[in-house]
Every structure is written in C-alpha cells, then in structure tokens.
Amino acid sequence: MRKLLIGIAALSLLASGCSNKMDIEAISISLLIGIDLDHDNKLIFSASSPVFSNEAKIKEDNYSTPAVTLRESRDEDDKTFMSITAGGKNQAILIGKKVMQHKGWFKLLEPFFRDAKNSLNSRIVMVDGSAYEVVKYQPEDKPRLPLYISELIDTSVRRNISVKTTLQELRRLTYEKGMTASVSQVRKDGKLVLTGTALLDEEGEFKLSINSEENRLLRILQHETGGEFPFTFEAMNQPKGEFFPENAYSFTTQKISVKTKTGYARNKFKFDIGVKMRVVLSERLFPFDVRKNARKLERDMEQQLENRFKKFIAKIQKAKIDPIGLGLYARAYQYRNWKRVQDDWGEALSRADVNVKVKMTIADMGVIK
Fold first, then answer.
1. Which long-range contacts (CB under 8 A, 24 or more apart) does 224-230 make?
2. What residues contact residue 22 under an 8 Å CB cut-off, 6+ apart?
3. How far apart are CA 357 and CA 176, in angstroms?
4. Residue 5 is assigned to a structural domain of this protein
5. Are the C-beta atoms of residues 178 and 330 closer than 8 Å to each other?
6. What is the pLDDT of residues 50-107, one digit of tens each?
C-alpha cells in the first residue's frame, strides 16, 4: 500500500507539471525592445519577436505601440496577438537618442526589475536616431537581428571599439556616485553600424559620444586592458607625402599596465595615471631603423598618446561626467575630501588635475627591418 501511495503521488506531480505545458507556437518572446519619443514627445514602445509558425513567410514579428509605460504597451500588443507574450529572453533594449537626452528615462525600465522572470543581462544600446527603425530592420545577409546585435556588441568589446553595459550594470551605475554610465551606440544608415560609445551623466542623461579610438583611451583609463588596442599615428618628424600618408605608422599593444594615484591639494583633487605599454609595430610607411633608433619612435608614440589622453580627459571634464571612475579612487583614498563633494562629483572632477604619463616599449618590429 505504501508503494502504491508513493507511485500515485509521483504521477500527480508529473501531471501537475504537464498542466503548465505550452507550445512554443503559442508564445510571443520579445527579444528586442525599443523606446522612442515621437515628434510630439509621446512615448513609443516597439519590440521584435521570432515567429515559430511553419506557415509564416516572415520570421520576425515587429510592432510599435504608443503607450504611457512599457507594461501598458504590452497590454496593447496582446490585443492583436494570437500568442501569449512572454518575457525573460530579451537580448537588447534599444533607447532612442531623443529619449536619452532627457533625465529620468531609466525609470521606464521598471518592469524588468519588478518581475523576477525578466533577465537583467539585456544589453543597453543608444540608437542615434529611431529605435524602431532598428527593431524592424531585417538584413538578408545576417542572422536574426537580436543575435546579430548581441554578437556585434560582444565583438566590439573584444576589439575595444565600444562597451557592453547590461541592464543590471546600468542600474548599479545609476546609484553609484563615483562613476557615470556609458553604453553602446549604433546608427542605422542603410545598414546597422556600431558608431562608438554614448556617455551619460549621473542622472542617465546623454552628454556626448566618443569614437572607437576614444573608447580605447577610456578602457585603458578604466584599467580594462583586455582585448585588442590598435592605434595609428602620423610621425611628427616625417614628411606627410603628397598623395599617400608617408609618415603613418600603426601598432598594437602586447601588454598594458595602468596605475592611478590620488591626491588632494589646494581644494581640488589630483590624479596621476601611469600607463606602461609593450607594443608591436604592425605598419610603418616611412624609412626608419627601428633597431638603432627605437627610443626615438617610442618617444613619438608617448607624446602623441599623452596628447590624446589630455584631449579626451578635457572633453569629459567639460561635460562634468566621470565614465573613467576616478570618483571611486577619490572615495577610496581621499574619503574625507570626497564626502564633501560626493553629491556633485561631476563639478569637482571638472576642476581636478588629471595627468597621464605614458611609457612605451617596442617589443617587436615585425619580420622585416
């Protein structure tokens, strides 16, 4: 009798599990979500879901809905769908630039944190234009758009062209006083192009865009030195050439070491950042004996890279943002001084002295002299 009761209990558990079964054809899974403002500054929500029906010729279901909130837009979409909308598999959240130019847009993502079924690993991407134009994009020579965008961002991170910021990371930075957020930036101009990185202030408002080279500088200053760091310079003591860049040379890093020291004097913070690089020459379009005069070329690299760091830092100081995270160092090593300015760190950083010193070593000049 005891064995029979155990068997009945096991069957009842299996039966209860089967009662929640749902065919994949009856589910609408939003893999991409877009948020825009129209010409009248009304919110427009859009989404892209794969179609699993064998009879459907179009394999992506794209829709756009005016609504007050993201949750309301889902209710409106359900009125036209034959399937049940399910969350938890979203790959990227595309935010139109017009939305990010306003403070407080981050609260629109509230449903992702309320529902435990939702994933917090969705990539946050700013679209330089309309997010819906990207959501409805269906390239014939690329994989499904959600997969394409995910791989595009992941590849850009390995090459340090842009950054990868998840929903969870963005939420953390929203409450972090010592660092401001940065997200991937794309544009649809015939095809989808990852144009660089969008930098936000402490309230999430878009402040400025940086290109791929500036993003590499940012990653170095953040002590994020993994992946590829290629650079191309024009030698300052070489003739430019009439038609071709005869003074150009390129190199990629073999190893990068970064140290940041923090101080405080004369009512302002001071940051001294030391960057050491071992590099490999990958291109040189002018005659030069690297073996005999390596130090001369290394000094050219150091001076040009220091100038680029200086311009980049001046750019973010003018915008009063801190994507580098220097506020984290100020809090760790100068807490008493940091505490007085923590609520207005962008202003304090704009008045700080930030110096970058570069030390270059050519480790390899290639297989030809």
1. 225/253, 225/256, 225/257, 225/258, 227/157, 227/158, 227/159, 227/160, 228/158, 228/159, 228/160, 228/252, 228/253, 229/160, 229/253, 229/256, 230/282
2. 84
3. 28
4. no
5. yes
6. 765 555 555 667 788 888 777 767 665 555 555 555 556 788 999 999 999 999 899 8
Alpha helices in 53-124 (DSSP H): 70-78, 97-100, 110-114
Place of tokens 């407080």: 104
For residues 169 and 249, state if they share a domain: no
Which are the contacts of 209, defined by CB distance < 8 A and separation ≥ 6? 128, 185, 195, 196, 197, 198, 199
How many domains does one find in the chain?
2
Planar angle of CA 329, 334, 335, nearest 5 degrees: 100
User: Do 193 and 48 reside in the same domain of the chain?
Assistant: yes
Report how far apart, in Å, the C-alpha atoms of 313 and of each of 197, 220, 234, 307, 352 are: 15, 12, 21, 10, 11
User: In the structure encoding, which two tokens stand for residue 364, read together?
Assistant: 């390899």
Indicate the residue among 161, 195, 210 that finishes a domain. 210
Q: Order across the sheet with 353-364: list the strands.
A: 230-234, 248-265, 268-284, 353-364
* Contact yes or no for 158/151 (Cβ under 8 A): no
Q: How far is CA 301 from CA 252, 258, 358, in A?
A: 12, 17, 9
Q: Strand pairing of 191-200 and 182-189?
A: antiparallel
Domain around 286: 215-369
- Joined together, the tokens standing for residue 163 give 């950054």
Q: What is the model's pTM?
A: 0.87
Instruction: Specify whether the backbone of 325 is left (phi greater than 0), alpha (psi in -120 to 50) or beta.
Output: left
Q: How far is CA 335 from CA 11, 178, 301, 342, 350, in A?
A: 62, 11, 36, 10, 18
155 and 101 in a single domain? The answer is yes
Query: For 178-193, what is each residue's pLDDT tens digit?
Result: 999 999 999 998 889 9
Is residue 20 included in any domain, yes or no? no
Farthest CA pair distance, the chain = 97
